[in-house]
Amino acid sequence: MTTDTEPEERSRTPLNRDRVLEAAITLADEDGLEGLSMRRLGQRLGVEAMSLYNHVANKDDLLEGIVDRVAAEFERAPIDTDWRDAIRQAAISAHQALLRHPWACTLMLTSGGVSPGRLNYMEWILATCRRAGFSPAMTHHAYHALDSHIMGFTLWVVNFPAADKLSDQVASFLRDLAIGDYPYLAEHIEQHLRPSTVDGRSEFEFGLDLILDGLERLRRTDE
Question: Do 215 and 142 touch, CB atoms closer than 8 A?
């Protein structure tokens, strides 16, 4: 339970970069990047905003730091794992991490630099493909196919309205589609409004497996 002494207790705990970044991620998870300001972050930590600049150079440094933390949540399988299983596990882990932090995907794609955590993840994907026998050119294509699925699908999910947020007006719109010229579009939209799996796999996993199946066929001809 929150007490009146919590801000004072937080201020007595030595401030460091880790605490600043952890608090920033929590704020961004709660209110989005628009709710993350140095003033609010200082309040959350029980310090003046200016104290934060002893641990982050500026707002850009703060954003790069929290993106790096999220990228560190992407799991990587041991080196002796089959390439397909390894990349599948890593892709699902990355997608889930980005869903836990809905602001992170956009920030990764729009920030000026690439964080060390993101660089390490990219290097791991590329190395896994090369060790599996993909040529440099095919590794290039494989990486972009995988990355675009992870990022693109995640962006679609975090921006698509949940079914419980759809208004009666949208429901009426769907009924009009169904009896008009777009019955299959109405059917398609209705599929979005209920949990959807294919052979027990999520929509993300279904698309991922299509990509991995195609890459495996290409790998065999690329050897």
Answer: yes
DSSP assignment of 64-102? HHHHHHHHTTS----TTS-HHHHHHHHHHHHHHHHHHST
Half-sphere exposure of 172 (CA within 13 A, CB side): 3
User: Contact, 44 vs 23, CB < 8 A?
Assistant: yes
Cα dihedral 216→219→221→223 (10° resolution): -150
- For residue 28, count CB atoms less than 10 angstroms from its CB and return exposed for 0-12, middle for 13-18, buried for 19 or more: buried
* Whole-prediction pTM: 0.84
Closest CA to 97 of 165, 25, 170: 25
Q: What is the pLDDT of residues 153-188, one digit of tens each?
A: 999 989 876 555 555 556 666 666 666 677 787 777
Q: What is the pLDDT of residues 42-77, one digit of tens each?
A: 999 999 999 999 999 999 999 999 999 999 999 999
Please tell me the distance from the alpha carbon of residue 20 to that of residue 57, in angstroms, as a whole number.
12
CATH topology of domain 6-56: Arc Repressor Mutant, subunit A (1.10.10)
Taking the CA atoms of residue 16, residue 21, residue 27 and residue 33 in that order, the dihedral angle to the nearest 10 degrees is: 140
Decide if 32 contacts 103 (C-beta within 8 A): yes
| Stated length of the chain | 223
Tell me what pLDDT residue 60 has. 92
The fold for domain 77-160+202-222 equals Tetracycline Repressor; domain 2 (1.10.357)
